[in-house]
Specification:
Pfam families: Aldedh. The protein is of the alpha/beta class. Helix content is about 40%, strand content about 20%. The protein contains 13 helices and 23 strands. The strands form six sheets. Strands 15-17-18-13-12-19-20 form a seven-stranded mixed β-sheet, sandwiched between helices. Strands 21-6-5-22-23 form a five-stranded mixed β-sheet, with no helix packed on it. Helix 2 (about 60-90) packs antiparallel against helix 5, helix 3 (about 95-115) packs parallel to helix 4 and helix 12 packs parallel to helix 13. The radius of gyration is 24 Å and the shape is globular. Bound molecules: NADPH dihydro-nicotinamide-adenine-dinucleotide phosphate and 2-oxoglutaric acid.
Length: about 525
């Protein structure tokens, strides 16, 4: 079924050089070979996107929503074929990938509803007042699509953060054409999803330039895409080094563009003393389940746990050790990610003060074994290496002398996607004092749960200050993600016949702010 070709505006193109996907579990190459996209493919995909942009950006909202719904239906209809290929390429289990397909199509459908709702356009009307000194002009504002977006598929979510993942869904919702740089760890999965999107475009009678997929294993491909003058913004999930490189490429263009990169996070979790007195052993079990889920290949992994040293923390550490013994080693996404994980664990274990709490079972083949370390707060604070993300099933428990030391450590941490408080009623006063610190550090603050697992909703923030993301004012999950790919435009004293639909009196069909007051249609 797979062609191994790149999708350039509806045309499946082969190439001079090829690469093979690798079966995650065995490390063996799998068929077919995939074409490495050429610079001509990049140029043609970007040109087609630029050509299609005005048509797609101006599409009636109901038509854009219909396209997103049809794309969701077609991805869903791939069913087992998609799951099986994604399992082979990523090593992730069937249930997880079926769930991820549900999340991906659910996200597209939610975004289709959001398109039709229209409030994301941010419509505002300020009427003229000729009697004011100086006279006040008529001003009307809406948000328009930025232009074609380059999306980098992530390795760790081959569906929900890849070809039709959150970045693609939010860019299309905003009315932006998309050129995806597929992750070379799952090119077959990428091709199947791209085929579904292309078929939906065809059935909706939309230009094929709205969507292209380019595969490749050379950084030059990503660099060329980011530097193409027709690209207006970038969406990325991956390593800090990768995100920073793309930010540099974007900044070095004649016309710099925004890069929305979601990069690295250690997601601090605070175990408050009252809650620890109630349930240290239960917390430890849930902690080990969260850190080892999906071989720890989540940017929301609970990488750092902060607790006040004492009897209950000792109990927590003991229970974590016992829970780890039952955790099997799990296949990691790629050999490169497994090697990076092992080297990260070696570096962590070699730091002064790092004590091994316990490990999961050892595996054979390209597996990630779970590791938990503990360190005193003094050693943690004197060595920034403890705060580096180790991507995989590992975590560090930091033993603090009191909650003031917990607060000091949190204050000194880098930006995070999440921060978590496990607390009992008796902890609320102390937790209240920590909240302002957590708000400064993280995009999502969680009470009495674990950070892995991100719900796709209207109020979700999957973002955070650098280096969690390149722009802490944004989210890459949830409907607010659309805002990254929009730009406000104001029309001053524009004749009604020239105003866009929505800004003429009584045509908004959605929430609009008139002379400062919010009005429903
Ligand atoms: N925090 C998180 O959510 C995640 C972190 N990671 C971290 O990243 C490591 C590698 O995993 P991977 O998923 O491959 O992530 P990478 O960041 O290495 O790669 C992601 C994508 O970006 C491209 N890319 C990376 N660097 C550059 C560059 N300098 N110029 C142009 N394109 C670039 C890659 O291209 P190419 O295909 O050519 O390699 C790939 O398509 C992991 O071991 C882990 O540490 C990974 C996934 C998620
Ligand atoms: O936890 C999730 O659902 C999403 C995590 C994520 O964005 C990531 O690992 O890249």
């Amino acid at each position: 079924m797979l062609t191994g070709k790149n999708l350039v505006a509806g045309h499946w193109r082969s190439g001079e050089t090829t690469f093979n996907a690798v079966e995650a579990a065995s490390g063996k190459p799998i068929e077919p070979a995939f074409a490495e996209a050429s610079s001509a493919d990049v140029g043609d995909a970007c040109e087609a996107a630029a050509q299609a942009q005005s048509t797609f950006g101006a599409l009636a909202l109901k038509d854009r929503a219909a396209f997103l719904r049809l794309a969701a239906d077609k991805i869903d209809a791939l069913g087992d074929i998609l799951t099986q290929r994604a399992m082979l390429e990523s090593g992730l289990p069937e249930a997880r990938l079926n769930g991820e397909r549900g999340r991906t199509v659910g996200q597209l459908r939610l975004f289709a509803d959001e398109v039709e709702d229209g409030a994301w356009q941010g419509l505002r009307i300020d009427h003229a007042d000729a009697g004011r000194t100086p006279p006040k002009p008529d001003l009307r504002m809406r948000k328009i699509p930025l232009g074609p977006v380059a999306v980098f598929g992530a390795s760790n979510f081959p569906l929900a953060f890849s070809v039709a993942g959150g970045d693609t869904a939010s860019a299309l919702t905003a009315g932006c054409c998309v050129v995806v740089k597929g992750h070379p760890a799952h090119p077959g999965t990428s091709e199947l999803v791209a085929g579904a999107i292309s078929a939906a475009l065809k059935e909706c009678g939309l230009p094929q330039g709205v969507f292209s997929l380019l595969n490749g294993t050379d950084y030059a491909l990503g660099e060329a895409l980011v530097k193409d003058p027709r690209i207006a913004a970038v969406g990325f999930t991956g390593s800090r080094a990768g995100g920073l490189a793309l930010m540099e490429h974007a900044a070095s263009r004649d016309v710099p563009i925004p890069v929305y990169a979601e990069m690295s996070s250690v997601n601090p979790v605070v175990l408050m003393p009252g809650r620890m007195a109630e349930a240290a052993a239960d917390l430890a079990q849930a902690y080990v389940a969260s850190l080892s889920m999906g071989a720890g290949q989540f940017c929301t992994n609970p990488g750092i746990v902060l607790a006040v040293d004492g009897e209950h923390t000792a109990q927590f550490i003991g229970a974590a050790r016992a829970a780890l013994e039952g955790v099997p080693a799990q296949t990691m996404l790629t050999g490169g990610i497994r090697d990076a994980y092992e080297s990260g664990i070696d570096t962590l274990g070699a730091q002064t003060g790092a004590e091994l709490v316990g490990t999961g079972a050892e595996g054979t083949g390209p597996c990630g074994r779970s590791y938990v370390y503990t360190v005193s707060a003094a050693d943690f604070r004197s060595n920034p290496a403890f705060e580096q993300e180790v991507f995989g099933p590992s975590s560090i428990i930091v033993r603090c002398t009191d909650l003031d030391e917990v607060a000091d450590i949190l204050s000194g941490m880098e930006g995070q996607l999440t921060a978590t408080l496990h607390m009992a009623q008796t902890d609320h006063e102390a937790a209240c004092a920590l909240l302002p610190i957590l708000e400064q550090r993280a995009g999502r603050i969680i009470a009495n749960a674990w950070p892995t697992g991100v719900d796709v909703t209207h109020a979700m923030v999957h973002g955070g200050p650098f280096p969690a993301t390149s722009d802490g004012r944004s989210t890459s999950v949830g409907t607010l993600a659309i805002d990254r790919f929009l730009r406000p435009v104001s029309y001053q004293d524009m004749p009604a016949s020239l105003l866009p639909a929505g800004l003429r009196e009584g045509t908004s069909g959605t929430l609009v702010r008139v002379n400062g007051t919010w009005r429903l249609p």
